[in-house]
From TrEMBL:
The entry's keywords: ATP-binding, Carbohydrate metabolism, Kinase, Multifunctional enzyme, Nucleotide-binding, Nucleotidyltransferase, Transferase
Residue ranges of the region described as Ribokinase: 1-320
Annotated catalysed reactions: D-glycero-beta-D-manno-heptose 7-phosphate + ATP = D-glycero-beta-D-manno-heptose 1,7-bisphosphate + ADP + H(+); D-glycero-beta-D-manno-heptose 1-phosphate + ATP + H(+) = ADP-D-glycero-beta-D-manno-heptose + diphosphate
Pathway: Nucleotide-sugar biosynthesis; ADP-L-glycero-beta-D-manno-heptose biosynthesis; ADP-L-glycero-beta-D-manno-heptose from D-glycero-beta-D-manno-heptose 7-phosphate: step 1/4; Nucleotide-sugar biosynthesis; ADP-L-glycero-beta-D-manno-heptose biosynthesis; ADP-L-glycero-beta-D-manno-heptose from D-glycero-beta-D-manno-heptose 7-phosphate: step 3/4
Pfam families: CTP_transf_like, PfkB
UniProt protein name: Bifunctional protein HldE
Domain Cytidyltransferase-like: residue ranges: 348-461
Region (Cytidylyltransferase): 348-476
Presence of keyword Nucleotide-binding: yes
EC nos: 2.7.1.167, 2.7.7.70
BP GO terms, sorted: ADP-L-glycero-beta-D-manno-heptose biosynthetic process
Subunit and interaction comment: Homodimer.
Length: 476
């Protein structure tokens, strides 16, 4: 994930922008004026919807984002522009079309149940002059972008003329165009790098029923040919993602729990654009998008996902490499805060772990049983030498950290330079601090920062010192 964390791709999103507006309240009576519920509104919230949710996902991943599209000369348009500015999105390519209504969808929620939705919007195709203004605005800095996303919600912005103009412009400048399509006619997206239809949309567009491997391949090939795509892709909900570049490949889903699929398609196209822009190939990109979708469907409502969340999720599936579990002070601080927000119980222990043996493993397994997340502080080579003598450590810190991180019981390893992990414990403030049974009656560093101290007895006869002595032939 390191290359993805360091990447800061510059991505342009063009599509149907809207505001999702929520009125939250309670309902305790029926109106005397008509047989309808009376909702006592307690609060109102607004979030970016439509193509705006793609933007939110890109920002959460760490991308630099610009937006192009059309809004009306109305209060909703100004509100939408301000919402984009608040998350540092470049809005210079937003075109105002007089008389057009900026999309705003209002939902009335009572006792966690949506009882009404009302929309204010224009759904007619945008005017030709607006198309020309968008193309002119994109033409200026097209080479600055690593990718361009067309997010179509069928509200009239992505006309065939605009889509074909943008795709031709992007292709001429080596910029990949990714499309989240809408409707039954995908011909207006011809020449794009890839589309991200779901199974239902792909069936609608191709006129084929996708019910086995053969029909899936046929649908992918049809889309690839008819739309002149570099990569043909279909999202398959709980069955993951299927792609066809030179051959059919399927990437199974990795979702553990599904609470809400709202906005999952926006997360998929955002994560695909992000990974491709960071230099990942299509196979790695599909796997990354699956992980992102796996995180977001475990949340309620239209949600976003961060690289750290994806990394943690991958680790929970035991699909990550050991080095993904080795963290710096700064990284572990952010991770711990996120876990605490989620109500997770954080456990901390530390040591040299010079030559890993069964005693270490059993000790760490017991430590993990005290909570949800186990963080292991690891003494640096210099601190081990100061504590154990000039002949130690036998194994360098990098190797010791990697082996610890490979253990199922260990969630994260954090190397530290000091003789004690005082500063690390102070920063983490664990729910449970774990030390060896030999600390009975002794002062344990960092206890004041932990809610609870647990002492765990070591396995008799198992220690690094005894292992070294045996190797040296001093014991039988």
């Amino acid at each position: 994930m390191n290359i993805l964390k360091e990447a800061k791709p510059n991505i342009l999103v063009l599509g149907d922008l809207m505001i999702d507006h929520y009125l939250w309240g309670s309902c305790e009576r029926i109106s005397p004026e008509a047989p309808v519920q009376v909702v006592d509104v307690a609060k109102e919230t607004t979030v970016l919807g439509g193509a705006g949710n793609v933007i939110n996902n890109l920002k959460a991943l760490g991308a630099e984002v610009s937006v192009a599209g059309v809004i009306g000369d109305d209060a909703n348009g100004e509100e939408l522009r301000e919402m984009l500015r608040e998350i540092a999105v470049d809005t210079q390519k937003l075109i105002i079309q007089a008389g057009r209504k900026t999309s705003k969808k209002s939902r009335v929620i009572a006792v966690s149940q949506q009882i009404l939705r009302y929309d204010k919007e224009s759904k007619d195709a945008i005017e030709d002059v607006s198309v020309e203004k968008i193309l002119d605005s994109i033409k200026e800095g097209i080479k600055e972008y690593d990718a361009l996303i067309l997010s179509d919600y069928g509200k009239g912005v992505l006309t065939e003329t605009l889509c074909q103009g943008v795709i031709a412009l992007a292709n001429a400048n080596g910029v990949k165009v990714l499309v989240d399509p809408k409707g039954s006619d995908f011909s207006k997206y011809r020449g794009a790098y890839l589309l991200t239809p779901n199974k239902k949309e792909a069936q609608f567009a191709t006129g084929m029923k996708i019910d086995d491997e053969g029909s899936l391949k046929e649908a992918l090939l049809t889309l690839k040919s008819e739309c002149d795509l570099d990569i043909s892709l279909i999202t398959l909900s709980e069955d993951g993602i299927a792609i066809y570049d030179d051959e059919l490949k399927r990437f199974p889903t990795v979702a553990k729990e599904v609470f809400d699929v709202t906005g999952a398609g926006d997360t998929v196209i955002a994560s695909i654009a992000y990974a491709l822009s960071a230099g990942k190939d299509i196979d790695e990109t599909a796997q990354f998008a699956n992980l992102a979708a796996g995180v977001v469907v475990g949340k309620i409502g239209s949600a976003t996902v961060t690289i750290d969340e994806i990394e943690e999720y991958e680790a929970s599936l035991h699909k990550s490499t050991s080095d993904a579990h080795i963290k710096t002070f700064e990284e572990i601080d952010a991770i711990v805060q996120r876990y605490k927000t989620q109500g997770k119980k954080v456990v901390f222990t530390n040591g040299c772990f010079d030559i890993l043996h069964v005693g270490h493993v059993k000790y760490l397994q017991i430590a993990k049983s005290f909570g949800d997340v186990l963080i292991v502080g690891l003494n640096s080579d210099a601190s081990v030498s100061r504590l154990k003598g000039p002949t130690r450590p036998v194994n360098v810190a990098e190797d010791r950290a990697y082996l610890l991180a490979a253990l199922e019981a260990v969630d994260f390893v954090v190397p530290f330079e000091e003789d004690t992990p005082y500063e690390l414990i102070k920063m983490i403030a664990p729910d449970v601090l774990v030390k060896g049974g030999d600390y009975e009656g002794k002062t344990v560093v960092g206890t004041e920062f932990a809610r609870e101290l647990k002492l765990v007895d070591f396995v008799d006869g198992k220690s690094t010192t005894k292992t070294i002595e045996k190797i040296q032939g001093q014991t039988c």
